[in-house]
Input
Amino acid sequence: MSINLALILTALTVLTGIVVALDKFVWGRGDEASGRPAGMDTLVEYSRSFFPVLLFVLVIRSFIFEPFRIPSGSMMPTLLQGDFIFVKKYTYGLRLPVTETKILETGSPERGDVLVFRLPSNPSINYIKRVVGLPGDQVVYERHRLLINGQEIALQQHPDATSQDPRFVEQLGDREHEILITNAAYMVRDGVYTVPEGHYFMMGDNRDNSRDSRFISSIPETHLVGEAVRIWMHMDGASWPRWDRIGNKIQ
Output
């Protein structure tokens, strides 16, 4: 069972806010407690202490930055399992917590962006992939080669690549980034895909090991969470943190 942190945080903020407002304007008239119902002193004190903190966290998490942990290797080598990242929430519009209703348009995804989105079949699950196709694009993926609207995307072997580390360099829009092709003979969902209006075609950088739009279809704009911008910690299991990854910008 998944836990809806946004719902819990919003509910606690609203509850403590109501208690503080009642105490200030109805029960106590400021610091006087003469009008409070019996047994409410403890609840009022806790609400006064926690409401500002909860409100601050809710605003930051909903509209500015939200932390996420990378749970798998589908975005290797850009992101590793155990990376903790910041996701910029306001890049693609401001949305209300819980309902995810957009209240302000601030921009749209560009080709090459790395972003977090809610899985259409189960919105409680977040995925992270790279934007490959924009609304209206035709995306062709065949034998590990990517074509967008008939134009082949340049792909070069990384100078440090080995058989154990089969990295390539790809250019999508303004984003030059590395991808993995672990098995040149393994064809993963080759095909032709047309991106519907209001949707985005997403792919993982670990092309042979990513459950992305080749499997789950294009992602509607309504399910976008935000842009992944920076790694703030790396810790996988009981191992020591990878200090060299802390602070790295996500390309």
